[in-house]
Amino acid sequence: MEVKLKPYSDPSRWVAIYPLYIDASKSLAQGRRIPKAKAVNNPTCQEIFDVLNHVGLRCELEQKKTHPRAQSRGAANPKQQQQEEGRIRVQLKGDDGENVGEGATQPKFMTRQQMMEYAAEMVPKLKTRQQQNQGEQNDATGKQKKRK
Description:
The structure is a single chain. The chain is α+β, with helices and mostly antiparallel strands. It has one domain: Signal recognition particle, SRP19-like subunit (Phenylalanyl-tRNA Synthetase, Chain B, domain 1). Helices cover 30% and strands 11% of the residues. It has 4 helices and 3 strands, in the order βαβαβαα. A 3-stranded antiparallel β-sheet has the order 1-3-2. The mean pLDDT is 82. Residues 63-148 are annotated as: Disordered. Its main location: cytoplasm.
């Protein structure tokens, strides 16, 4: 069956979001889709999924999918590969063609661009991100040498 004939509620019609799209360390040529000023450093698909799922959007996490431009396919660094792996499928429209998430509690996303910018804005506010930043700051202050 052709994808265009399927209803909007079918996951194959949902918007795919890769962490690469909102990564500030990537260039536009490498696949970043939002302005660098609005992007976030090294987002993971789990973080993006948590943000969009919390808003109330129907999301699906696909851990084993990788963006074609991701350079980590043959990378020796498994941590980098783990960060770039995965994608999130998000339902933006209902079966009637209207945007999903229109209400007092849910922000209205007219386009995938608005949704990506919202995710990039909210990822740094996650508790896991804040705990990591506090741990890095404590490590940096503990390594200072005393001067005589």
